[in-house]
Design brief:
By secondary structure, the chain is α/β, with parallel strands linked by helices. It folds into 2 domains: about 130 residues, 3-Layer(aba) Sandwich (Cobalt-precorrin-4 Transmethylase, domain 1); about 120 residues, Methyltransferase, Cobalt-precorrin-4 Transmethylase, Domain 2 (2-Layer Sandwich). About 40% of the residues lie in helices and about 20% in strands. The chain has 11 helices and 10 strands. A 5-stranded parallel beta sheet has the order 3-2-4-1-5, with helices on one face. A 5-stranded mixed beta sheet has the order 6-7-10-8-9. Strand 2, helix 3 and strand 3 form a beta-alpha-beta unit. Helix 9 packs across helix 10. The longest helix is centred in the C-terminal third of the chain and has 18 residues. It is elongated.
């Protein structure tokens, strides 16, 4: 590790946009907020939402400089950057580290590097010999697992499942088989506007006694965490119309067969 290089700080974000200032004391330790306020150089997924988060931090702890004076670069991950015609490389964004400056890496929601494109930048920082410092904050994946009552000793995060109907159903059945064989909790996330489609796919594809947990709006005032077996879920949500209240809410799904 090169002591002359700056440190890459992994900065957690809140899990929702609403009432962000009210969330901070609940989801971020005071030391995390203080360190966030000290950083001038940033790598973020979206500059607009990053500035909104920093404005909330400013309400708790004075920032080292104005938000307008901060050096902020966007990174969506190599594949998405290429899609947008952006040829920037992780090492390009980490140049401030080489000059001895500390850099903050911020996720859109939750913690960097977990269900987040930041892992590529973290690996690049390690290759440079820079210190990487993860700070404590909320992860919907771990919060969902904690509150699910499912197996917290063996679990696997699967990211996003296919959204095409037949592929999604096949993948769900595969995860159920693996869960039963290994007694392993399977965890995945979904784009919020597909929540109803995902829940209906679970109810149509999975065995009646398999346990499913749905965690929504985690850490928010509207938080909902429910674990039921599939037959009980079918009684609660017999059709898509009954699922209207689940749409467009950040969600994590957990399965134990």
């Amino acid at each position: 590790m090169n002591s002359k290089l700056g440190t890459l700080f992994l900065i957690p974000n809140t899990l929702g946009d609403n009432a962000r200032e009210e969330q901070l004391p609940w989801v971020l330790p005071s030391e995390t907020i203080l360190q966030t306020a000290k950083l001038k150089h940033w790598i973020v997924e979206d500059a607009k939402t990053a500035r909104a988060f920093l404005k909330s931090v400013e309400s708790v702890s004075p920032l080292i400089c104005t938000i307008q004076e901060m050096q902020m670069s966007e990174w969506r991950g190599a594949a998405r950057n290429a899609k947008y015609g952006d040829t920037v490389k992780p090492t390009d964004l980490l140049k401030p580290l080489l000059a001895g400056n500390d850099v903050g890496l911020m996720s859109e929601a939750g913690v960097p590097g977990v269900a987040d494109p930041g892992a590529e930048l973290v690996l690049a920082a390690h290759k440079l010999g820079a210190k990487v410092k993860p700070l404590v904050g909320p992860s919907s994946i771990l919060l969902g697992l904690m509150a699910s009552g499912l197996n917290g000793q063996r679990f696997a995060f699967q990211g996003y499942l296919p959204h095409e109907t037949h592929e999604r159903s096949a993948r769900l059945k595969q995860l159920e088989t693996e869960s039963k064989k290994l007694q392993q909790t399977q965890i995945w996330i979904e784009t919020p506007y597909r929540n109803t489609a995902m829940l209906m796919a679970c109810l149509n594809s999975l065995a009646p006694h398999s346990q499913l947990c749905l965690g929504m709006d985690l850490s928010l005032p509207s938080e909902m965490i429910v674990t039921l077996n599939i037959s009980e879920w079918r009684k609660r949500y017999p059709n898509e119309a009954a699922c209207a209240s689940l749409q467009n809410r950040p969600a994590v799904f957990l399965l134990l067969a």
